[in-house]
Structure formats: structure tokens, C-alpha cells
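Hi team,

Filling in the usual template for the complex we talked about on Friday. All components are listed, including any nucleic acid strands or ligand strings, so the model treats them as one assembly.

SUBMITTER: L.P.
PURPOSE: interface mapping
COMPONENTS: two
RESIDUES: 856
SEQUENCES:
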Amino acid sequence: MSYLIKNGWILNENGEKTQADIRVTGETITAIGKLDATDNETVIDAKGLLVSPGFVDLHVHFREPGGEKKETIETGAKAAARGGYTTVAAMPNTRPVPDTKEQMEWVQNRIKETSCVRVLPYASITIRQIGDEMTNFEALKEAGAFAFTDDGVGIQTAGMMYEAMKRAAAIDKAIVAHCEDNSLIYGGSVHEGTFSKANGLNGIPSVCESVHIARDVLLAEAANCHYHVCHISTKESVRVVRDAKKAGIRVTAEVSPHHLLLCDEDIPGLDTNYKMNPPLRSPEDRAALIEGLLDGTIDFIATDHAPHTEEEKNTEMKLAPFGIVGLETAFPLLYTHFVKNGSWSLKQLIDYMTIKPCEAFGLPYGTLQTGQAADITLIDLEKEAVIDKETFLSKGKNTPFNGISCTGWPVATIAAGKLAYEEGRLVK
Amino acid sequence: MSYLIKNGWILNENGEKTQADIRVTGETITAIGKLDATDNETVIDAKGLLVSPGFVDLHVHFREPGGEKKETIETGAKAAARGGYTTVAAMPNTRPVPDTKEQMEWVQNRIKETSCVRVLPYASITIRQIGDEMTNFEALKEAGAFAFTDDGVGIQTAGMMYEAMKRAAAIDKAIVAHCEDNSLIYGGSVHEGTFSKANGLNGIPSVCESVHIARDVLLAEAANCHYHVCHISTKESVRVVRDAKKAGIRVTAEVSPHHLLLCDEDIPGLDTNYKMNPPLRSPEDRAALIEGLLDGTIDFIATDHAPHTEEEKNTEMKLAPFGIVGLETAFPLLYTHFVKNGSWSLKQLIDYMTIKPCEAFGLPYGTLQTGQAADITLIDLEKEAVIDKETFLSKGKNTPFNGISCTGWPVATIAAGKLAYEEGRLVK
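RESULT (copied from the run log):
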């Protein structure tokens, strides 16, 4: 299949708008510039649209196997494509956990069979993510594991994390950490702060996260391992990562859209669509996250897309599962809040969602270049619409942003040269 | 009892030698200047001697109760006085541990009955220092606990340390931490480095210490607790403390003479007198400790005086207990190495052993001032002698410095107005 994306504009190195047509042949970009259509290619009229590299989200939960009621690889991938994502990395906290070569191969096949975007599967660090016994890293790497993580739970002992880091470093893979010290959770369902006190809820103190990061950056230094911090959420964590980077430690970090956009004081009431892990923190934490993203302490944005059924979320704050969806709302929310109404440049936002995650993990995606994978997202920056969870292609409707009006929506997504999503008005 | 210390010289604010006589009446200094003897006072001729504030060592092991073969409060105090120390803080890893009001009162009485210097007893953080259950901080404070520590073992769970810090902060006491993650000890008896590899010994990696400090400074920040790091030994630990101080966290740290003087490459062979915990680290670690002391990251020097019987130490490296004595060798070694043959000023060294520990813990000692406690040490900076463990007043002879020639020896010590030690040629 061959496409010619005509009349759109791209952002150049300096973030300036530049008119450019893009030719896609098979899975790759084969030409960029002023191009005329050839016979056997489908023209996509991108007039007035931003032609962006496909977004990259290195933290999604597709729930398959075992949680198909919440999401499947197929529905998750469709949601990603609709959100403009062409590459996602799927967390291993499924049932079963991909902690063996066979399990990983099953997931890979499932991706091949059902996914419309590139899905990079994480393998778990420990068997069944219980934290006691390490998985076979070498075998899992061979089976295509993207990196290793027990996301959803923290690695509780330093010794286990240190051994995992040494093993990961030996096979040039990253350790990706959900940072949570179980002895500091206190049965909390929200951040230990204004909201928890006002509502008589147990709160999860910021140290629950920051102490693991502080531990792990030292272990990563000693093991010379690439250590990546999932969903960073506290100002102290940002400081620890900043100091670690200053010391030359190979640490990267991601932040979620919801932690950039909301803090605990924004939680309107006991609405479980505002319950995620880590929780929404204080205004000072949110400010520190934004500052950390802007000064490079935090490397990129990742949604931590975590679908649950409405039934699961339809209970009290203490009992509801943690997590919200994010793939289909990330760009509109972030563009509206930080670019259109904020101080970020468009390029900054695009980079946080494309090239930055790829640079952090050495992935050959996230840019528009001849010869590179044809991962392309067309964005209508003028389009205004209200977030409507009923239109989500994700099975998960658990979002706190339902009803919010946003500007700037992805309207078509080409993943590895295939049209993965399109609002039905572009392709001729 | 009243003393007049005549003809000695003291160091003024700028570290300059100044002739000054000092009158001691009862427990306090009552006059400093050009003084003439009165009838009923004993004159101590301090001609040619440095008259220093008494040294303060906030980390000693006096082994009583339960370890009287190694040391008693009495013998330890005598060793302290001989080393020029007038105040010491005694660690609670005795048998039994002072983890109740009654035990603490027993120790206090023992100190009153047998000690010739001021001994401030630590109480333990957890019952029997096992790490599971917190002691009654309020009761132990009432019984005179100086601060709280489980020295000898690390507090393994963040939750326990956090609760302890909150409790200590509430009663304005410090948490003093032996930083050691049990999951990172690997059965090591020396530092994981050159010496361990050359001798086929399990090594204790630096992260074993540094990860606890990194955890604890964040907990201390959240709990607003004074957190003190015992016997800091690694370059990463110095960096973590430096960053924490920069962030305004109430952390202080001590370093031992042996970690300033020796590294693992100095260990001549399988000599258990070079075995202590934390172990002697790399040359780079030693350099970082010196730098950290000089730039204020590390607050003061403490010996971690840890006597063992010669029988206990007379075994293989793996089996011997950790620890060396230090009270009777600290000043001569440090003065010789860092002042006489080094770049430190005399005042720097004296401050690290007197006012700095007192400032860190708010103790009213460590200076020569009218009205202050008469804690005074006379030092012959010209005296040259060889360290001879057989002359030690400590029961412990376990030192790696035996036979080393040093210059600069304490020759008399007045503790709270009483002559606690004197070489027999001064008092008239």
C-alpha cells in the first residue's frame, strides 16, 4: 500500500511550520517535500492539518490476557490509534503475567493478530510480579520483551532490584519501575494531603514513591543499568531524579497527562475516576512535575492508560481499582492546557510524545524521516470538541475528563505504513 | 575542687594560638585569661600544651550490660579520658538493649557509679533492635535517652523508620542510623572492591549503605526529624547527604577516623583488626569522605569505638566480629596525618572533635567558655610516641594502628571539673 499525504504542514527542527508532502511506501516513509501523486497511491488530503510523527506511549495497560472485560490488545490498540499513537509499550500486570518465554510469545502473537499499532510488550522482573524470584531475562529478551517491569507493584527489596538491574544491564535492557514501598501505603486510596484529610480517607504519602526512586538510582549507578521511573508524581521524586542525572546516573522518567493537569485539590468529590496510582498529589507536586518536564529531569509523557470496567469503578473510593484511561484524551487535553492556553511550544509537546520516549529507550521511531517507519499522525489543531467517553474505542470509560472541551484532535493515524485510524473524511 | 590551668595556650576564634590560663571551680569554667593561683586550687602547669575543649565522641560501644569481657562503662570511660574525650554517647547494642525505661535507668546509674567522663546513652528504636516493634520513646526520653538508634543493624522497612522519625520529631529527639540494607550484605566481611576480589571474600557493596541514607533523608524531610548518619563510608552516601542538605533536610553525618585514614587497599592481609562495619572502602570513597568533611557535608568525627576480645578477633576474616577500638588513637592519628603532615588547620581538627558534634545535636559542650562545663583536654602537640595497644585503658586491643608512630597526644583530661586522666607529671 502507498500513501501520499498532501498539503499538510510539519514542524521543522526549530518548531516552525513547514509545508511538506509525505510519501509512504510499504512500512516506511520514502519521500518528504513537494510531491505529486503517482498513480497507484492513495492521496490523503492533509490541508490545514499538522502532520506529526506518530505518538509513542511507553506505559499502557491492555489487560490481555486475563482482563479482557477491561480491555484487549485489539481495543487498546484502536484507542491508541484514535489518540494518535503508533507505538505503545504494554505493561505485564495481566493474568497470567508474561513471565516466561511461552507467555511472551503468546502475547507477541496476539499483538500480530489483533493490533493496528506497534505494541512493545514488557516482561515482568519477577515471577507473577510477586517480587520473590526473578524471571529469565535472557529468554524473555529473546521472545521480544521490550524492557522489564513489575508495574502495578514496587520491587520491595533492594537486593532483588539490584540483581535485576545487573541482569538487565548485562543484556542491555532497561528496568522500568513502579515506585511504591508497601510499608508506606497505609491502605491509602488518594494522596496524603488536603483531599484525604477533608474526606477522612487514608492517604498515600509522597515518600511511598520517592524512597524507592532514591534507592533505585543508587542501585542503577552501581549496576550501570538504564533505570526508568514510571508515572513520577512527587516534587521530592523530581528532585531525586534531577540530582541523580546531575551525578551522571542513567535514569529516565515519565509523567502522565493527569499528573500534569490535576492535583488532589481538583478532585470534586468521592469520584473514583480520580483514583489512580500514584494518586493525584498536591499543587506543589504538580508544579514540580511541570518544571521537571521542562528542564529535562522528566524525559517524556506516558499516559499509564489503565482501563477498568464501569462496574469496577462504580464503588467507594477505598474499594475501586486504581487507574484511568488516557490514550484518547492525552493530546487534546495537553495541547489545550499547555500550548493553546499555556506557554509550551507545539514542538515541546509533540517531542514529549514522540522523539523523547524514543531517545530515552533507543527506539528508531518518533520522527518524520525518509527511510524511517511510516508512523504518522494527522492533527487538526483547530478542531474543538468535548471529550465524550461513549465515543472511546477503548473498553475503558474511566476518565475524569469526560465533558471537558478541548481543541486539537488527531484525525488520522498511519502506523508502520497502514492506516490505523481515520475519521472517515480524509482518504480518497 | 578547683583547678588553675596555667601557662597553656588556647585557639581563638580564628585558630590562632593565644596564651590563656583557665580556672575551674566545681564543674564549670569560672575564668579565662591571665590568672594567678589562689590558695585552695590545684595548679596544672600547661606550659607548652594546647588547652582544648574536651573531645566529644557521639559513637562509642561500651558493651555494658552483657559484654563486659569486651568493655565496661568504666573501662570505656577511662579509655575516653585517656584519648582526651570528656563526653561520649554510648550505643544501645548491649545485652540487654536499653529498650525500656527500667533498662535505661540501670544504664544511667551504672554511668553515675563508674564513669569518669560524661556518657550520654542512646536508646534503641526498636525492641531488642530487632526492627519489628518501636520502643516507648517518651518513656525512654524521660529516662535520659540521648537519641534513638539501632546501631549495629539497619532499620529494614521504610514504614518503621518513618514512624520512628515522626515519633522522635514529636519529642525533639534525633534518629541516628546505622545504614545497612540486609538484602545487600551478601555475607560480606569487607568492602566489595579490590581487597575482597584479591582475597576471594564476599564484599559488602557501597549501595548496602547508600540506599538506606537515600531512603531516610526523604523520610526525615517528610517527618521533619533530625536524622543523623552513623559512620558514613561511601562516596555515594556523601553525595546523597550533600544533596539532602542542599534541599534543606535536617540531616547530619559523622565519619570515623579509620575511614578517613584507611581504604581497602591498605588492608595488609587477612587481619581482622581491619574488619569493621561499614568496612574500609575504596580510595575514591576515602577521598570523598575527606572532601565531605571539609565542605560541611559531614558534620563531625566519631570513632565508633568497638572493643572486642582478642580471642573473638583471633579468627578468620569471615567469622571475626566487626569493629575496632578508636578512643585512645583518634587524635594522635588524625593530628599526625591531617594537620602535621596534611593540610588541615589544627582548629579544623579540634572543631570536628568538639564543637561540631555539639552543634549538630544541640549539646552545651565543646567550647572553652566561662560558665560552661569544665571539659578540658591538655594536648602535647610535640610529643611523639608509638601506638601501643598494651597501654590501652580500654579492654579492647583490636586496632589496626598498633605500632604506628604519631605526634600530638592528650596528656590530661578534665571532665566536668574532675581530673579524669593525667599522665602523672602535671598536677602539683
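MY TAKE: The mean pLDDT of chain A is 97. Residues 53-366 of chain A form a domain with the TIM Barrel fold (CATH 3.20.20.140).

Thanks, L.
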